[in-house]
Every structure is written in structure tokens, then in C-alpha cells.
Amino acid sequence: MREHWVSENVLDRSWLAIASRNRSATELLNRTEEEQRKAGYFHTLREILQQPSTWLQTGAQMAPLSSELRTMVAGIRTVVLTGSGSSEYAGECVRLPLQKALCIPVQTVGGGALLTHGSQATNPLRPGLMVSLGRSGDSPESVEAISIILGTEPAIRHLVVTCNSDGRMATTYRNDPRVRLVVLANNTNDRSLVMTSSFTNMVLAAAFLGFLERPDQYVALLHKLSEKAQELLCGHFDRLAGLARRDFDRAIFLASGARLGSARESALKMMEMTAGNVFAVSESYLGLRHGPMSAVHPNTLVVCFLSSDPLVRAYECDLIRELNDKQLGAAKLIFGEEIPSDLARGEDLVIECGGLAALGDDYIPVLDVILGQVLGFFRCMKEGLQPDSPSNDGVINRVVQEFNLHHTES
Known about the structure:
single chain
């Protein structure tokens, strides 16, 4: 296998080249660091823009682990992806690709479900592998969920992926032979309240489990994704900023398959970054007809992540045309490749991205999420909030605050 190496200088500064291509980013970054920190976007803007280069870093870190991780997955009959909030949605983004690659059942289970229901929440097939995802690794359920399964299910192996070497997920299990710990690069440990770099890099790190026999193909895929992400950020950042400033107070994100995880994460970004001023939800295209379409009001932004799979796309296009016929929503954002011209109307924003079909729907949730992050970032600023810490009243925090952990009496 070829050696994979990425210059740290390239990683640390390449986001500046992306920023220089966009008027909105340039205006924000031309302010002094003190002004940026006072306005509350110093961390978040950089953490969004640095993602294409950090993906190369994650590829270089994961590829050499192929032999060790092959041994870890040998003989397993099921995989459980777990995390809380965004970390759970990261698992959703990678569940279907892993199931396809490993040819065994793969499920996503929230950390909270493991606290309340333990191994009952998991597929009963054994032996299994539990992949625990967490940016900080310090949320109350992070360590407790792993501890519960370690204590009750000896036939489940454990892989922990985190961005924080000092977090409890890392420090608690660093020397535990039952747990394999992977700590991603420090620059993926977002300082902002919201997860951006950490989310996409944990998705891509977990996706490596589907490439253990093909590490070079994995690295090549991350290079292609990085190139597409740069194209999106360089070519559409200002357009997304303009859309985010329009008149809407609710948003719905539509997607299918693995990309439904990115729709959930994008909706969460919009809601977190606007402190709930914009109420956002996610739904599948086919699921929208079963009640949620009633919530697509004249003040609703509809974001459509459009599949390249012909069968999936046929259903999605039918739904979009139905929205048009019923004149629902304030505007749409449609993201895909070779988007039919009749899907857009009025002031809709269409983002064409060549090469998505070649990449396949399974691996482009990280591109979808970047659009959601940029929309959330600029809507946050329009609402008069600070992206680095948009919850002025402290309702939510970067790390979920401590809460009581309850145990079944023996």
C-alpha cells in the first residue's frame, strides 16, 4: 500500500484560498481577529471552510489502520453505530454504505437508547461491533453507553472515534484492551458550539470500515470528495449566503437513503444556529406526503438533496413537481447533478454539481451537510446571533450538561 501523507501547512492554510473566492467570506475575514471574536464567528467560519483539507488528513490517518481493523471486524455478524445528536446522525449517514460493503446488518442507535434500554436496543446477532462516535466524548451518555455494553455484552467489540484526545471517551478507554480508540486530528475538534468539521470527518472515518480491503480506493474517494467540496464552497458560498438571508422562518430538508442522515444534520444545524427562530425538520421525499407536507407553508424554505440514482430520482422529482403544482413553500434549494429544468420555479436556487453520479449517493452526505452548514451560519448572523455560540440564553451548550445517570438495581 502506498504511503499517505498530507502537509500540515497545506491543511492549516488551504481554507484561506476558498475564503478568498467568496465576497461574503472575504468581508468577514478582513476584520481583525478581535472583531471576529466579538461578532462570534471566528471559529465556525474557519471550521466550515477547512473541511475539504481535513478530509485528506482523515484519509491519511485511517488508511494505515486497514490491517488492524480487518482483524477487528473478522467474523462479526452485525454493526451498531452509536452517538448522540449530530454524532447519531453521522452514523445514519454511513449506515447503508457499511451494510452494503460488509453484507451484514448495520443499525444506528442513539446513545440515549443505550442508557434506557441497553443491549435490547441493538441487533441480537453476535459477535458484533459497536462504533461509538463523539466530537468531545464528554457528553454524559458517551462513556456510560459504552460502559453498559462492555458490562453486559462480552461478544460485542468496540471502536471509538472521537475528535478530542482529552475527552472522557478517549481517556477512559485509552488503555482498555477491549476498546480500539481512534482520535482524529485536533483541528477537527470544533471549538464552535455546532459540529461542522467534526461531523464530516467522523462520517468519513466510520466509512473506512467499508474499505478495509481497499484503502487506496478510500483515500482516492476522499480526494474526490475534497475536490467537490472545494468547488461547492468556491462557487456557491455567496449564493447560499443570499438564500439564507431571505424571508422564511421554517425549513424542511428532503433526502433519500444515506442522505437522509445529512438532511437530519442540516435541519439540526439550522435550528441550533438560529436558536430555534427558524424551526427546521427533515423528511424523506416519499414520507412528506404522509402528513408533513401540511407544514410546508408560504414561509418555508425547502431544501432538496436530489439523488443520482434513476429510480430514486424519479420519485423525488415527482414530489418536487407536486410541491410546485400546489405552490408550496417560499423557495427551494435543489442540489444535484443534471437537475431537470422544470423542477425550479421563481426564486429557487439550483446548485449543479458535476460528478455526483460517479461518486454515488452513499458517499456524498458530507457534501450535502456543507450546504446545510453554510445556510445555518448565515441565517444565524441574519438573526443577530453569534455562530460560535448561538444559544445566548444557555439553553444548549457545546457539550451537553451533566444529568443524572440511573442504573437498574441488581
